[in-house]
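Q:
Got a chain?
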Amino acid sequence: MSEEKDLSQQLTKIGVEEDGVLANPRTVCTVCKHLYREPKILPCLHTFCLDCISRLEPFSVAASGQRNCPQQGGAQKEEAAEKNVRVTVLCPHCDSEVDIPPSGPAGLSTDHLALDEVFLETLVSDGPLGCDLCGEGGAESRCEVCCVNLCEFCLQAHRRQTRTSSHSIQPLQDLKSRGHLCRPVLCTHHQGQELLLFCQLCDLPVCIECASTLHSEHHCCPAHEVIGCHRDRIKTLITARLRPYLQRLEQTLQKVEVSQEALRNRVEAAATEVRKFAQGYASAVETHCLDLLRRLEELHLERRNQLHLQRVQLQQALSDIRGGVDFADRLLTFGSDAKILSSKGVTLRRLSSLAESSCGDHLAAFVPNDGSSIRFDPQGLAGEVSGYPVVGVIHFKALDPSKCSLDEEGLKQVIEGQQAHITLVCRDSSGEQMAHGGDHVLVSIVHREKKNCVVESTVVDNNDGSYKVSYTPYEAGMYSVWVCVKAQHVKGSPFLLNVKKKLRIHTGIFHCCSFCSSGGAKEARCGCPGTMPGGFQGCGHSHKGHPGKPHWSCCGSTTEKSECLPANVMKAISAGKHLRTVEL
C-alpha cells in the first residue's frame, strides 16, 4: 500500500472531518474541499487529489510517443503501450492545459509536502490518535519509516522485531511541538524502503533494492551527492529570472490597480458632472419651455384682442350701413314726395359719408389673422438659458409677398455662358426680414422673343428668410424673370434681364505704334488705319491714321480694358487696309 493511501486510511480512522474549519489551507484540495488524499502535482505545480484529477474531463486527446520506465513490470508496459495517447486536461485552479502521463494520473509526482501538512494537521487536531497496528489504545509514537502511529505495547513489539528495530521512532508530542514535519519518502515498490539514491539515467529517486534490481545497470549515486546541482538549478531560475520578473509583475499589477482606482474615480467624477449637467440642462429646457408657452399666450392675447377690435369695428360699420340703408329704403318705399324732399338732405349726407368709407377700401385693413403664421421651429437656435444652449423658436410673422424684395444687381451685366446669382429676401407685412426659411419660392426665366428658350435656375434656402437663386444663360437677349412666393409675385416681378454676348478677348497687344513695339520691323502691321512712309506697313507716331494714343494692334481700340470689336476690323478692311495681328 502506498504512503498516500496509508495516510488516507489513518485520517479515516481518527475521524477527521474535512468539512470542518481547518487551520492550514494547504491541507485542503480546492476541488473536493476535503483533506488531500494521494495528492498529485500537475505540470503547472498545482496539487489536487488523485481521484479529483481522475474525474477531470479531457480537454484534448492526441497520439503520443510512449517511453517505458525500468520500474514498470511487463503487464504495466503492455498497458502503457496500449495507451499510446496524450491526454490534456485543464487545471481547475489556473485553467492551464496540462498533459497527463500515459500511465494515467497515478503517474504524476506525489506532493510529499502536502502529505506532511496533512499529517501535521492530524497531529494538532483535538481528537485522539489510535494505534495503526492493534487499533486499540492511544498512539504515543510514530515510526517515520513505516509511517504508522504506535501505542506503547506495539512500540515495544516494533523495536523487538529485527526488520523494524532500526526504524526511526519519534514521540507524537515532539512532532506536534515542531510545527513542521520532515517525513522520509518511501519507495512505492519496496515497502519500508526510503528513497536514498538517485538514478541519473532515469532521472528518478530510488531505494537500495531498486538500485540493485530494476536499476542494476544504471548509474545510481547517493541523493545527497547530486542534490546540490539540482537545488542550484532551481535556485538559479528563482533568483536570477523568476523573482525579478515577479517583482516587475507585482509593480505592474500595482500600477494597474492604481490605474483602475483612478479610472473608477474619473468615471465617477464624470458621471457626477453628467448628472449635474443633465439636471442643469433639464432645468434650462424647462425654463425655455415656460418662456415659449408664455410667449404663445401673449401672442394669443394679442391676436385675440386684434380680432375682437376688428369684430367690434366691423359690427359698428355694419350697423351704420344697415341702418342707413334701411332708413333710405323705408323713405323711398313709404314716403311721399314731400317727405322724401324734406328728408333728402340729411339722408344724402349720411349715405354719402357711408359710401365714401366703403369706396376708400377700408376693408383691406380688416384682414382677419387666424394665427396661421404662428408655428414652432424645433431646430431654431434660441440662444442660451443659464449658460446652456437651447433650441426651439416660435415664429409668428406672416410672409407678405408684396413686401419681398429682390437684389437686382444680379440681373445687371450678365454675360452669356457665365453663372449669375440673385438674392430674394422675404419680408413680413411690416417690411422686416423673415427669421426662417421654408417658403415655396418659384423662379422662372424665359426669353422674351424665343419662348422656348428657358433658363434653368436653382434656389437655395439660407434658412434666414433669404434665398439664393443661381442661373446660367447660354444665349444673349432680353429675358423676363418671374419670382413668386406662395404663388404670388414679389414686388417688381416680372423683372427684365438683359444677357449680353460673351466678350471677345483681344488677340494682339496694347501698344503706342507698331514701329516702336516691333523694334522697327517693316512687316509689322496694325489694326488701326495708321501708315508710316519709308516702306513700313504699320502705324507710327504722328503719321496719317494714327489715333494719337496707345491702342490694340488687333482691332485698333484705344481702350485697354475693352472688348475686341470686329466692327473696327471691318471698317479698316473697307478702307483698303491690310490687317495683320502681330504678337510681339
